[in-house]
Amino acid sequence: MKAVCWQGANKVQVDTVPDPKILNPRDAIIKITSTAICGSDLHLYDGFIPTMEKGDILGHEFMGEVVEIGSEVKRVKVGDRVVVPFTISCGNCFFCQRDLWSLCDNSNPNGWMIEKVMGYSPSGLFGYSHLFGGYAGGQAEYARVPFADVGLFKIPDGLTDEQVLFLTDIFPTGYMAAENCNIKPGDIVAVWGCGPVGQFAIKSAYMLGAERVIAIDRIPERLQMAQQQAKAEVLNYEEVNVGDVLKEMTGGRGPDAVIDAVGLEAHGTDFIAFHDRVKQVVRLETDRPSALRQVILSCGKGGHVSIPGAYGGFLDKIPMGAAMNKGLTFKSGQTHVHKYLRPLLEHIQNGDIDPTFIITHRLPLEQAPHGYEIFKHKKDNCIKIVLKP
Questions:
Q1: Average pLDDT estimate for 212-217
Q2: Which of 87, 214, 226, 298 has its CA 20 to 30 A from that of 192?
Q3: Who contacts 66 (Cβ-Cβ below 8 Å, separation ≥6)?
Q4: For residue range 251-277, what is the model confidence (pLDDT) as tens digits?
Q5: Which backbone phi and psi does 145 adopt, to 5 degrees?
Q6: What is the pLDDT of residues 40-92, one digit of tens each?
Q7: What residue ranges define each of the domains in the chain, with the CATH number in brackets?
Q8: Largest CA distance in the chain
Q9: Which of 186, 214, 197, 179 is closest to 304 using CA atoms?
Q10: pTM exceeds 0.85, yes or no
């Protein structure tokens, strides 16, 4: 089969690789009909996530048709049309039973690696390094899905791939980010980052009752989408002092909740951001937390800080004094996708949201290397790419 394979920092290519096989009686094989490039994939592309190996298959947003099942798979059958949560979960462990699906105890065979860095292992992830299990990803023609009865979600007739594809990651991720804000009627929410997750976080904040959502970015087409499609008020952080303007926009109180939808490759305009870049190059710091610093300082007293943006390691100069003295509440984590699949599907079916608004590019799988380049460098007004195997 054809698959998008990591070759090293800033290089991917479409190779012919062996077809996946059933390895465990709870496995299924799906023929992929749609997949996507995620902002988190750029962290792999840029070489910031360790334990990637040449030839690893990328991709964690994918869906398709079941073509083979293991002997113990009972809830899905060959021919079912399914989406695949990017977090791999067993369904039976302490964490899965408590709807904390991305913390599954049984799906990361390389948990011992990540425990050395994080203390405990989260779940395995598709196409996201050997730290997270070494699972082949879904930017390919076929994929093996472990724990298939738990990890495959059947899609009813009448919905297109593009309407439901983002249930695999970015729609639930944006929704959980907003849910973590503990939004009350009348609340003002500020969202840093108007990429795909940020756009869904804005839409979700409104669905959960926010009165106003203010979006912060520097890319004109992303700010335009946030304003026109997601109905946010927008700020370009290269043009204004975000903290000062947020105070003015909120009557001096500050946002009730803030969302960091940027993560470890944040850009900044001050000396500390330059310092982050220097330290990252020489591996004295793994991440660039410019956005995280700003959300903490900008959040109003007693507010909530939600962090869906991916961080990989160690951060410098985090203003914990501000966080503690302002009484801020933090919530973060990889998304518990399984928890949100059914309710978010209902939102789509009811017409509350059309997730296709986010798509700017549709490419055949063979053009994935071009897709990574225009997505990384924000060329051709690229915000979200769907790949068709």
A1: 98
A2: 87
A3: 28, 29, 30, 76, 77, 78, 79, 80, 82, 148, 152
A4: 999 999 999 999 888 887 776 765 677
A5: -115, 110
A6: 999 999 998 999 999 999 999 999 999 999 999 999 999 999 999 999 999 99
A7: 2-169+335-387 (3.90.180.10), 173-332 (3.40.50.720)
A8: 62
A9: 179
A10: yes
Q: What is the DSSP letter of 145?
A: E
Bridge partners (DSSP) of residue 235 are 216
CA dist 186 → 8, 37, 212 (Å): 47, 35, 8
294: left (phi over 0), alpha (psi -120 to 50) or beta: alpha
**Residues 191, 197: Cα–Cα separation, whole Å:** 10
pLDDT given for residue 265 in this prediction: 82
Whole-number pLDDT of residue 276: 72
CA distances from 115 to 9, 30, 130, 221, 313 (A): 25, 31, 13, 40, 12
- Tell me what the pLDDT averaged over the chain comes to: 95
Q: For 194-206, what is each residue's pLDDT tens digit?
A: 999 999 999 999 9
Residues present in the chain in total:
389
Res. 100 pLDDT band, cuts 50 70 90: very high
What tokens appear for 319 in the block? 């203003």
CA distance 146 to 70: 10
User: Which residues, including other chains, have CB under 8 Å from residue 306's CB and lie 6 or more apart?
Assistant: 177, 178, 180, 181, 257, 258, 259, 260, 331, 332
Helix (H) or strand (E) holding 83: strand 81-84
CB 207 within 8 A of CB 179: no
Which long-range CB contacts under 8 A does 290-293 form with residues at least 24 apart?
290/262, 290/266, 291/192, 291/193, 291/260, 291/262, 291/263, 291/266, 292/260, 292/262, 292/266, 292/318, 293/317, 293/318, 293/319
Encoded tokens for 61: 């947003």
Q: For 361, which DSSP code?
A: E
